Amino acid sequence: MEEQQLQLQAQIEQLKTQLTGDLFGDMDIKDQIHNLEMKLNGVRPMDSHIDCVGCGS
Questions:
Q1: Quick one: which of 31, 30, 33, 44 has its CA closest to 11?
Q2: Between 44 and 10, whose confidence is greater?
């Protein structure tokens, strides 16, 4: 489990290096970062008893 967390953190850090500061240009990258952070933290949408289908976490 710890190895998977390290891999997710590495992916997040790699994506952060691709951010340009352009709100619309960075939208897809920020979405990917958000999804990875949700997986890393084990977060699901509030009041959800199933995994999030929309974001895949």
A1: 33
A2: 10
